[in-house]
Amino acid sequence: MTEQHIPHSSEQRGDFFVPEAFSYKSERGLTEEIVRTISAQKQEPAWMLELRLKALQEFLERPMQSWGPDLSALNIDDIYYYLKPVGKQERTWDDVPNDIKNTFDRLGVPQAEREHLAGLGAQYESEVVYHNLKQEWVDQGVVFLDTDSGLKQYPDLFKEYFGKIIPFNDNKFAALNTAVWSGGSFIYVPKGVHITVPLQAYFRINAEKMGQFERTLIIADEGAIVSYVEGCTAPTYVTSSLHSAVVEIIARPGARVRYYTIQNWSKNVFNLVTKRAYAYKDSMVEWIDCNLGSGITMKYPAVILKEEGARAEILSIAMANSPHQIQDSGGKISHEAPNTSSRIISKSISTKGGRCSYRGAVKVPAGMINCKSFVQCDALILDSASRTDTYPYIEISEPEVDIGHEASVSKISEDQLFYLMSRGLDDAASRNLIVNGFIEPLVKTLPMEFAVEMNRLIELEMEGSVG
Description:
Layout (H helix, E strand, L loop, with lengths): L8 H4 L9 E4 L6 H10 L4 H16 L21 E3 L12 H10 L1 H8 L2 E6 L2 E7 L1 H4 L4 E4 H7 L1 H7 L10 H9 L4 E5 L9 E6 L6 E2 L2 E6 L4 E9 L7 E3 L2 E6 L4 E9 L4 E4 L1 E6 L4 E8 L4 E4 L2 E4 L5 E10 L5 E10 L5 E10 L4 E10 L6 E11 L5 E10 L4 E11 L2 H9 L4 H17 L4 H15 L5
Helix pairs in contact: 2-3, 3-9, 7-8, 10-11, 11-12
């Protein structure tokens, strides 16, 4: 009889590590030599190295932003910017090195691929170690590669879009990513192809003081439909790690792209990312953003509505459950064409001294008539030590529009607790039920298997909460 491994709660959070095994590890800190080494290791074309070096200069010269959470504890000179694990990228799990394979087994990633996914990429430290797309989608012309392979195999398509939505000088951490990016996903869905089950990438940091800088580029051609899920974990260390990704999405006319994130980094990770999409005529872009982990998250997915009929939705869940955890998240919408519509829904939960902030922006320039946008921010605070903030920015230069904004802050009602406990539930189960009801409108947008995972992670984060 085969022994069944039942994971402990720390494993369910991804809070475990294995001894390091690597074929190359850079020195700590960021230098031109390290950037050149990364490019040389990957055998990149000259234009990419030139772009990396420009981005490095931008990062070094640009000051740290003065708004948002305090990032002074992040020591950029104490980070390893490139770590290449042993082995090469594989298409079968059996061929992945045992320590790495066992890590993803403990996280349930191979099982998820078998049961729920059209394709999967698994990144460990700086490199994608496993990548596979099911044959039925290969036969329909879908491209699903790690980004490094996308650069090599589709150089013209790659160069046409890479860095065009988020240029290297967009912000300090976009510059950093452009200088040292490694891994991520490159996706192209041909005209009219509907991928009926999600693609997924899973990002794992294992080493201490590690920086992970994946770059993702998704191109959905006319009438195409694709859903993409990213998950991420890391073990807890006393020292800080850094995750700074860049994601660019192009939704061509009539296309639909859904991008799910279930972010569960350990609380020693700074999670500072830039994500942006262009939506063209009658297309739809949806960000479903679930932020549970990290010490500090700064993440504001954005959609630029480029042509009439384009739509966007940004649905965000954030939970902060320790005195030193800040979830600073939200969304940005820019209506650059008339007759476009958007919606931002943000729900946050603050407990055990944690702090959640909504930070968002909606912009409608003059002449963009008949645009519709609605923003709703709901915060749930579970104790007196926790905090929530809302920083909405709405710039409307056109009178013929329909714009709405709502915000609410609440706590768990004693009447609700009394009712549920009178029905036989204990205090913890009652609180979990109330929290699950609070986030249910967003969780139900997730595919079933990921909704179950999200609820389970919320319950783990709720352990020990008091009213």
